[in-house]
Amino acid sequence: MAVSFTKKTGFVMFSGGLMAFGAMLHAACQNKISSSYAASQKPEDLQQTLAKVDDVVVTVGDFQDRINKQSPYVRARYTSLEHKKEFLDNIVRFEVLAKEADRRGLTKDPEVVRTMKQVMIQRLLKDEFDKIKLEDISDADCKKYFDAHPDEYNKPEEVRVSSILVKDMGAAKKVGADPRLKNVDNQGFRALVAQYSIDQATKDRGGDLRYFDSKSKEIPKEISEGAFKLTNIGDVSPPIKTSAGYSILKLTGRRKAYSRAFEEVKPTIRNSLYRQKRQDSMESFVKALRDKAKITIDEDKLAKVQIEGNSAGAFPGPGVPPPGPGMFHPGATGAPSATPQMPGNPTGASNIAMPPTPNPAPPGAIPSGAPGLPTNE
Asked: What is the C-alpha separation between 59 and 368, in angstroms, rounded?
């Protein structure tokens, strides 16, 4: 039992440090140092040894680079010699813990192996997809999309109504005389729908027909014409004869027509095409790798896998959505995300997972560039 606990403790310590190292490695890949802080330093100065932990060497350049990759708020804290020592101490602590974890054989632990693979995957995808730039999407590409999708940028006027459908004029007059019909808050109207409407398709949603335009083929012509005659939200129509009976409408919403010029929507189109190009490239890249790999799957054994805590077909609950197009697997413990994380994505390119932006660290916090340590909680 003691041996097992020791190994587990070592794994937790190493895994925590390793994840911090993964974040640090990812941050270091984002940009090359171009700041003016190194302008007055000679290359040989940066290569000098600052600290050694057994056979691991930390140079002046390594240390300087790690600090200067932090946010301005964090960097400001490490200007004094005392705080530089604190930052360096975190690096030393990380190295001695990693050394001990390696000595205990934790580099072969399945969880550690998965974490290492995840770091490699992120680096691979960054290297692969940094080739695609927003500038690769030309104005001609944007215009072609704009011309091919007029419905996205030109919308006619739309109205939204709720309907009470009854069999005959007698029932329609009875509904029309009910004072609940014209309440502004719609609660009374919904109660009338539940009491009188024979339209089972809309009854459960309070008679709501949702938004439609005057040319909609999903709405009977007489209903559409009656709806567009209503002027103000809350207005109620007289009974309208339809093939299914008599309908009484209440106006609940109206959208004005709009038209967008190409120059107005070009940036949005460019971002959308950029995201799609990256997604398509990723799918092609993964497909090519799968085609070259020798893959065998035993579906009979797959069917026998038991998932704890969920009935068959049940949604797994908040925070764990089923995988969508282009996802390797759901974001769940034990299955690290493998979507490409690439820095420098322009605003709007949200289909590609972005690397987390370090939050400004409060005084006393361990900076993201210095490896963190697990707690005893």
From this structure: 19
Query: What is the pTM assigned to this prediction?
Result: 0.51
Cβ neighbours of residue 83 under 8 Å, at least 6 residues apart?
77
Place of tokens 């999903």: 218
Pick from 26, 13, 12: nearest CA to 119: 26
Determine the length of the chain: 377
Q: Spell out the residues 6+ positions from residue 374 whose beta carbon is closer than 8 angstroms to its own.
A: 12, 13, 16, 17
- Count of alpha carbons within 13 angstroms of residue 69, beta-carbon side: 24
201-255 per-position pLDDT tens digit = 999 999 999 999 999 999 999 999 999 999 999 999 999 999 999 999 999 999 9
Would you say the C-alpha torsion 180, 181, 186, 192 has a positive or negative sign?
positive
- Which one, of 41, 132, 12, 101, lies nearest residue 376 by Cα? 12
Are the CB atoms for 50 and 58 separated by under 8 Å? yes
Low-confidence ranges of the chain (pLDDT < 70): 1-40, 184, 310-377
- For CATH 3.10.50.40, the residue range(s) in the chain are 155-258
3-state DSSP call for residue 53?
Answer: strand
Maximal CA-CA distance, the chain: 97
Is CATH 3.10.50.40 the classification given to domain 155-258?
A: yes
SS3 216: coil
